[in-house]
């Protein structure tokens, strides 16, 4: 089935990102590795740099600039915490949709295959668009300091954060600071891609579950009408057919409910943190852009708006489904 090939293509991409970060929670029996602790350590370092930058801020606007990326910290830390806490749910959901949607419908009807392929195609397109958008944001963050340094001879760091014991006014200090900032930015990019593409996968596949359940109900209705013409009602054969059909529908319906309940368990708190931090960060960075012409506001604004649009769109689709 073509849809199964597309799903495995997406799985390879997602698992690669998860392995780099040390958060391969979609696999059974996942355990923390040194890569997990490296990711957590870098997030902690980012927070320490932010605190240090606040302490040494020379004026109010410098202090506000140091807080301009606080939304990223809350997003990253909340996602890591809830991902570790709900790791079994992620692996069960991933294995469940792979089994219930792709493996179980390898020999399904054309209508079933069309529904499955349509959803996984949307997932792949959304993943590619998100990858391009986030990668372009990383280039924006890195291009401006390079331009200012080589063309304007002004030292500007990627993030408005200072590292204790390192001065950006020396050539070595400036290079080390921007190198560490770039490392944080790359890890942040990978983390955002992993989290958001996995979110889109799980939420959009709820549409597959709903559509496949609808097809099963319609098929049972047609079969019930056909068999009703062959058998008398209240006969053992007719009752056995109805009982088996209703049992299959009930089990599938329970699978859908369990999947949705597990999704809410995984993403409810993350969505609250995401929407709140995005809304605050957009407002905060627009304020900095209007008052001190803070250069990162365009990249921040685009990414935060994309976050909000992503969650609004997938939430609407889930509600409609």
UniProtKB/TrEMBL annotation:
Keywords: Cell membrane, Membrane, Olfaction, Receptor, Sensory transduction, Transducer, Transmembrane, Transmembrane helix. The chain crosses the membrane at residues 37-57, 63-82, 119-141, 147-172, 184-207, 272-296. It is found in: Cell membrane. It is a multi-pass membrane protein. GO terms for molecular function: odorant binding; olfactory receptor activity. The keyword Cell membrane applies. This is Odorant receptor.
């Amino acid at each position: 089935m073509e849809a199964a090939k597309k799903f495995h293509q997406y799985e390879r991409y997602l698992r690669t990102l998860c392995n780099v970060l040390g958060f391969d929670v979609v696999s059974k029996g996942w355990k923390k590795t040194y890569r997990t602790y490296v990711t957590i350590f870098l997030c902690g370092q980012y927070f320490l740099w932010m605190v240090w930058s606040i302490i040494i801020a020379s004026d109010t606007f410098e202090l506000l600039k140091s807080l301009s990326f606080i939304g990223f910290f809350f997003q990253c830390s909340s996602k890591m915490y809830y991902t570790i806490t709900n790791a079994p749910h992620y692996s069960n959901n991933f294995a469940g949709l792979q089994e219930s949607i792709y493996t179980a419908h390898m020999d399904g009807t054309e209508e079933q295959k069309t529904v499955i392929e349509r959803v996984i195609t949307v997932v792949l397109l959304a993943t590619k668009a998100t990858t391009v958008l986030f990668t372009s944001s990383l280039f924006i963050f890195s291009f401006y300091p390079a331009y200012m340094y080589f063309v304007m001879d002004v030292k500007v760091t990627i993030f408005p954060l200072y590292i204790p014991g390192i001065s950006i006014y020396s050539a070595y200090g400036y290079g080390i600071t921007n190198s560490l900032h770039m490392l944080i930015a790359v890890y942040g990019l990978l983390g955002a891609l992993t989290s958001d593409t996995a979110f889109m996968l799980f939420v959009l596949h709820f549409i597959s579950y709903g559509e496949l359940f609808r097809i099963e109900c319609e098929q049972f209705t047609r079969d019930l009408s056909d068999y009703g013409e062959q058998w008398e009602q209240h006969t053992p054969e007719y009752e056995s057919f109805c009982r088996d059909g209703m049992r299959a529908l009930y089990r599938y319906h329970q699978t859908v409910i369990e999947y949705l309940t597990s999704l809410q368990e995984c993403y409810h708190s993350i969505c609250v943190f995401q929407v709140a931090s995005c809304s605050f960060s957009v407002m905060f960075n627009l304020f900095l852009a209007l008052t001190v012409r803070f250069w990162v506001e365009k990249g921040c604004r685009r990414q935060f708006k994309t976050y909000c649009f992503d969650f609004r769109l997938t939430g609407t689709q889930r509600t409609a489904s």
